[in-house]
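Before the break, one more example. Copy the sequence into your notebook; we will annotate it together after we see the structure.
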Amino acid sequence: MILSTPAAPARADAATTSLSGPPVRRHIQGLDGIRAVAALLVLLFHYWSMTGRQPLPTPLLVVATNGGVGVDIFFAISGFILFLPWARAAWTGAHVDVRRFLGNRFLRVVPAFWFNAGVLVVITFPVVLFSVDGLGRLFLYGSFLAGFAPPSQAPSYLLNDVAWTLCIEVCFYLALPLVARFFVRDRWKIALPVVLAATIVFKLVAIARYGHLENAGVLIGAFRNIVGMFGEFAAGMAVAAVWAKLEHRGVQLRPAVSLGCTVVGIAGVWAPLTFNQYFVGREDYLRGTGELGWIPLLTMFPTVALFAGVAIFGICYQPNVVTRLLSLRPIVYLGAISYGIYLWHLPLGQWLSRGVGPGVDPASRRMLLSLLVVGTVVTIAVAAFSHRFVEKPFLLKKAPTVTPVPGTPSARTTLSRWSAAVRPPAPAAARAQRPEPSFAGPGPRHPDAVPGPRPMSDA
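Here is what the structure looks like once it is written out:
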């Protein structure tokens, strides 16, 4: 059940609106925790794969086998948080500065990526600096153009095997200003099915081209581009569109509804992973030889992203017990440094596990445990260093991207209304004892109106 409370009146809005001031962005509680979970899922998947895919207890085996879904969760988060300014602007009349948006994305992604690439080149691949071919490959990698290499050649252009996702991420940054208008307000109801259908058609074409090859990795590589994976971003964009609409109207959810969305989202992510693990199988999934043919490969990750979007909405829009769990300080910190964890965990794991052949013997199982403990600790330490000394100085240079339009409700106004709406109403006795908030000038006053929104932060 959804509750809607009256919006604060015009004079209250005037007290919290500054058309000439910088836009305000509300901190989204729980989102850093989701980032931390996604990063640790990818870390577990890679470390488990490095040590021979050891037998594990059933729930942990499902997570380890399918930890790559952390990438799809990251894409859904990006679609949500980066499209949210456009979704809000469609209701408030604000203007999103595309140049500042792209500049902020550069500051967020590129410095840490180049720092990671520089370290890897100096320590592990210095030979690339002494040949034309090596410098060319380094240029393609550092400019994110390696993601456009043919599927069979793309891995040879990557110094860090996780960088293929960043090539897709950068493509999304460039595409978002062009496609945002098709998702604002209620347009996402048409745009999302169209995008999902288009990605399936694209994958069917890739299957027709590469599905017969013995190396299934070439087919998976053909999926790894902005066209094949735009559905994951679109899922997050749909959540942002719904979020902005409810926020604009001052709608709050009952805690039970918020928790229900969270449970449905998590269950929806878990169900296809478990089904694929025990009823499809890895070989049938990659080669389309099972009873369901190519359906699992075509639909599993977009389905995961859709339900991840539902979970994001349930966790973040209205706090519940899962939100509070993901808001614990250690988890929030892991989310803050999740980009560094993602960049560094694989090369550090490869370095720590060098010389150890994969197997299912007790020594390999001990190696998995050691790598999970030592590799995770070292990764977190390096990621913390990167966040503090590489990422943060550039993040402080980010500029506001949203400018309110004079004569229309600003982002600050809408957020003030939403903040007042989601506050639990005070008991009648308490309201009777406290003085009413005073706003400048004449006009009606709302007893629960607040003079300003809650703390804000950038994406």
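Residues 362-395 form the longest helix (34 residues). Confidence is low (pLDDT under 50) at residues 1-25, 409-424, 434-458. Try to locate both features in your own notes.
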